[in-house]
Amino acid sequence: MSIIPKKSLGQNFLIDKDIINKIADTINIKDKTVLEVGPGTGNLTSKLVEKNPKKIYVIEKDDKLAFLLNEKFKNKINIINDDILQINENFLSDEKLIVFGNLPYNISTEILCKWILNFDDQKIWFSNLILMFQKEVADRIISNYNCSNYGRLSILANWKLKIKKIIDIKPESFKPKPKIDSSLLFFSPKENFFKFKDPCNLEKITRVFFSHRRKMIKKPFNQLFINDTKIANKLGIDLNLRPQNLNFETYYKLTEEYEKL
Prior knowledge:
9 strands, Helicase, Ruva Protein, domain 3, elongated, Rossmann fold, 2 domains, seven-stranded mixed sheet, alpha/beta, single chain, 10 helices
């Protein structure tokens, strides 16, 4: 069956064997339960199968690709022919999953944010995430404060996750070739992180602060805290700074204060 990558699904199939090996070798999956998101034509899947995991789930939205994967792997993998954004990962497996994903660029941040916000603090559904992003997005995820890439995504991702970059990947490693470089990131859950009544409040705080990222934070602070300088003094915040000058912890503490209002 001839497979033509669908632009609408952000499909860029990984074909570089060296990169595929590097991804598969990132972590030991022998006798572990694995989830692969967006397996495409199954190039990475083949390498994962060779590593003898206990079980492999793959989530593939494209009907034709799901059929092809079933023909290729038979009972070696468990295919879920569905949209990753519609799935509740907490119910996929009783065991923690090691997740691999060459995520569709058009929804990669949406997938990551969904996973972070649906993170059950009592029963974390994954042990590690090994995910591919557009390099520009990856740079935002791993950025620290006082950097131009620092923003809402950095603050949300670093809230519950430890993150490191594994490798940058050139367009030639894919078919069709994307116009941009990609990056592979490795995530593991933090044991200790700020607990909020509603994680959406962290999204709200960062959205308001970063809506005018080049301007001083006095205006968004006053908008959220109704000119209550006691909170700024308590947290040691200089209201003449810009949003990118506040570190992760300050945004988490601001969210805690906001939830007390």
